[in-house]
Amino acid sequence: MTDDPAALLALLQEQESTLRFDAFDELTAWRLGSLLVERCLAERLPVAIAVRRNGQRLFHAGLPGSSADNDVWLDRKMAVVDLYGCSSYLVGTRFRAAGGDFDTDSRLDTGRYAAHGGAFPVLVRGVGCIGSVAVSGLPQAEDHRVVVEALTAFLAAGA
Asked: Which ranges in 85-118 belong to alpha helices (H)?
């Protein structure tokens, strides 16, 4: 990732314009979540993983080294995706690029919302945002990277 806010915004927006599903059901959520687990275990990442569709958690895993605190972060980051329809990292970056801070300038309850990287919208062509996939346990740019790399691989495989 880059430190230049304009370049980072462009990259995050490009990711959302390309990482889209043709359809998304329970089995898709299971396969995507399972791929994330495999990749995170291979990298020995101490993360929690969740996949939701229309408010229903279809997949959850807590990997070695993760804790209940990571589950709280998953919920807070996914709430940002639900509200804004885009990644939690993009929302936070937009606030920072405008010279602001999400925690104070959004006027939202920070106990419920966290615009930190790691939650990405499940975007279906012709429909829009129907849910989210999230990782928590690493610095925000790394949480985001893990999700985006898994989505990229999953969609490239035609899964």
From this structure: 88-97, 102-105
